[in-house]
Structure formats: C-alpha cells, structure tokens
Amino acid sequence: MTPADRERGITLARAARAGNTLALHELLDHLTPYVTRICTPIALADGPDAAQEALLAVFTALRSLRDPDALYGWVRAIAVREAVRTAQRASRARPAPDLTAVPAKGDPQLASDIEDVLARLSPAHRAVLVLRDVEGLDEEAAAAVLNIPPGTAKSRLHRARSSFRKAWSA
Predict the structure, then answer these.
(1) What is the pLDDT of residue 99?
(2) 128-135 contacts: CB < 8 A, separation 24 or more?
(3) What is the CATH number of the domain that holds 57?
(4) Where is each RNA polymerase sigma factor 70 region 4 type domain found (predicted)?
(5) Which among 12, 20, 27, 125 is least buried, having the fewest CB atoms inside 10 angstroms?
(6) Measured distance CA(36)–CA(120) in Å, rounded
(7) Residue 103, domain member (yes or no)
C-alpha cells in the first residue's frame, strides 16, 4: 500500500467518523482488499466470510477508533480476530486434515497449493504466521494483535513454521 493510499484511508476514516456516509462507503471499499489479504490465509476457504465479518465490525465500531492515524493497525487487529474466529468455527464443523496426505515432493500439485498446507495448521498458528511472515510484524506486535503474551506468540510461530515445513517437505 502506497503512502498516498494510506493517507486516503485515514482521511476517509476521519470523514466517516464525523458522519459522512459517502466517506464511510468509500472507506469500506478502500479497506476491502487489505482486509481480504489478511483474512484469506488465516480463514482459507472461509476467507470471504471472515473479511465480511471484519468489515462489518469496522463499520459498527468506527466511532470507537480514537486515533484515525492508527486505522490500519486497528483494522488489522479486527481482521485477524474475525479470521481466527471464522476459521475456528469452520474447523469445528469439518474433520481435521490428515498431515500424512500431503502430495509427494516434486508433485506439481505441491507447488501450486500452499493453501492446502496452510489448511493443515490451526487457525491460531495461521494467524501468527500471517502476521509475522506476510504482514511483517515482529513477535511482540503480533502478540499484541492476537492479545496473547509475546512468549506464546513466539512458541506458536515456531510450531507453525515447523508444522508448515514438515507438511511442505513431506
């Protein structure tokens, strides 16, 4: 996201908080790709549902945003929370995947299906992996977004990377 895009979002957030309905709609349209980029790797097939839930939460809670300059961190925290919640709800409805069913090394399906490997991780592990390796947050910032102690974030990240490597190289 460019600095101009970031500034546009902050400007729209200020106008939306002041009651400008058109700015609110534009803000939600502006945030949709950002929220989707966060939710999809965590909630996988349920990513669109998670993104919709996150945008609804942004819509309803926008007036509680104290500092519009913190818009993207605030939205990131909401998106991660909703993606984890949606993924956990979906995982209760589906049987757990078998980690031994990963395609063999050299299989073309393996190279094209990172999502399959991510699906084998728990939503909590996918969330910390996305925050750290996709969003570029450090462990302490990821822990703050996930509302867990930094040590827990570090151990989850270690386990998530280890599980991902194991499934990827199997």
Answers:
(1) 45
(2) 128/153, 128/156, 128/157, 128/160, 129/41, 129/157, 129/160, 129/161, 129/164, 130/38, 130/41, 130/42, 130/80, 131/76, 131/80, 132/157, 134/37, 134/38, 134/41, 135/38, 135/76
(3) 1.10.1740.10
(4) 113-161
(5) 20
(6) 20
(7) no
53, 135: one domain: no
Query: Closest by alpha carbon to 18, among 68, 57, 55?
Result: 68
CA–CA gap between residue 79 and residue 35 (Å, rounded): 6
Among 38, 65, 94, the domain-final residue is 94
High-pLDDT (> 90) share of the chain, %: 63
Which pLDDT score, from 0 to 100, does residue 96 have? 52
Residue 146: CATH number of its domain: 1.10.10.10
Q: What is the DSSP letter of 147?
A: T
**Per-residue tokens: 152:** 């827990």
Full-model pTM: 0.71
What is the spatial distance between Cα 103 and Cα 117, in angstroms, rounded to a whole number?
A: 10
Per residue in 35-62, pLDDT (tens digit) is 999 999 899 989 999 999 999 999 999 9
Q: Is the pLDDT of residue 5 over 60?
A: yes
Q: What DSSP assignment string belongs to 99-127?
A: GGGSPPTT-HHHHH-HHHHHHTS-HHHHH
Q: Are residues 42 and 82 in the same domain?
A: yes
Q: Is a pLDDT exceeding 60 seen at residue 107?
A: no
